[in-house]
Amino acid sequence: MYRHKKGIFAFISIVSLVVLLVGCASSDGDTSSSKNSASEQMLSSTASRNVETEMSYTLNDNAAKAEEATAEGSGESKASGGGIDAQLAIGSDGFNQKIIYTANLSMQVDDLASAATSLRNAIHQSGGYLLQFQDTKHEGEIGSSYTIKVPAAGFMSFIDRIEQIKHNEFERNIGGKDVSEEYVDLESRLKAKQLVEARLLAMMDKATKADDLLKFSQQLSDVQEEIERIKGRVRYLDNNVAFSTVELRMYQTNQTLKNKSIEKPHLGGRMSDSLVNSTKVVWDAINLLLVILAGALPVLAILAVILIPIIWFYRRRKETAPKPSKPEEEQPPTL
Reduced to 3 DSSP states, what percent helix, strand and coil does the chain have, rounded to the nearest 5? Predict the structure, then answer.
């Protein structure tokens, strides 16, 4: 009996020991698995921190390059005057403003030819050029319209030169359009598109399938087209910022012609006008008759060649034909 109890106790002890060992092993597995999970989380967080650090370095580098480009642009603006008579310089916050200036001018002059000569001299002195020109002529008025491009640095000085031209009336309207925000937006879009272009080129170098190459090529074509469109808009803004536009209209009026067309002429003037008009009508009629005769000469020559022989033959035949004898008149009886 004692041995039987001792055996049962030994069996229970062995089972308890086995259960204890299994529990320890499971605890060790859970601990190692938690350690592995913690290690993976640590590696993931470290990698994300590295990526964020690299991105921040990239952004900082791009920002530094943008600041350098802005500084270079501001230096060029200062060197060229930077706008209207050196007044379009960088603001207090260091931002390079992009402003397009335009002017609409109207001027009445006594001598249009002399004023046009003075205008050409002013354009040459300001370093500008003539973009468009048009002549106009109305009753009692002749004029010219000009579209002129002048450097923004000498915009106001050019307006002053024009105002010095001898004139009777002068009107001007000057305005500006700030395109700084659009310019910055275009630069940002251009940089983003260039990064996408570089990424697509790298993917094309690594691609091995024809479908992938075709897809990347199409995407690259779209991106490059957008890049060229943005560059074209930037060049357009740069040109219009560097050269201001001046729309000028100069005209000359003849008050004598205006008064003559409005006032009623006196009797002598009306008689003179009537004589001139009648003489002109007679002269026009003579001219018309001469023109008709000149045009009919070939026809008359042909008709003469045909009709002259016919008429001659008819007369000749009439002359040679025997004349009919007339009956003798009866003599009255004599008583």
Answer: 70, 15, 15
Domains of the chain: 99-255 (3.30.70.260)
* Residue 1 amino acid letter: M
CA 121 – CA 195 distance, rounded (Å): 49
Per DSSP, 82 falls in state -
Q: Which residues contact 95 (CB under 8 A, 6 or more apart)?
A: 70, 180
User: What is the rounded distance in angstroms from the CA atom of residue 39 to the CA atom of residue 113?
Assistant: 90
Strand partners, 245: 102, 149
Burial of 230 (0-12, 13-18, 19+ CB in 10 A): buried
Show the beta-strand stretches assigned E in 33-168: 99-108, 129-138, 141-151
* pTM passes above 0.85: no
> DSSP character for 92?
T
Question: By the 8 A CB rule, do 170 and 154 touch?
Answer: no
Pairing of strands 243-253, 129-138: unpaired
The runs of H, that is alpha helices, within 166-266 are 180-206, 210-242, 255-262
Question: Which amino acid, residue 270?
Answer: R
For residue 35, CA distances in Å to 32, 41, 42, 48, 180 come to 5, 10, 10, 20, 56
Q: In tens digits, what is the pLDDT along the chain, a chain of 335 residues? A: 545 555 666 666 676 666 566 555 554 444 444 444 444 444 344 444 443 444 344 434 444 444 444 444 444 433 333 444 444 443 434 457 889 999 999 999 988 889 999 999 999 999 999 999 999 888 788 899 999 999 999 999 999 999 999 888 899 999 999 998 998 999 999 999 999 999 989 988 888 888 888 888 888 899 999 999 999 999 999 999 999 999 999 999 876 445 545 555 677 777 888 888 888 889 989 988 888 888 888 888 888 888 888 888 888 777 776 666 555 555 555 54
What letter would DSSP give residue 81?
T
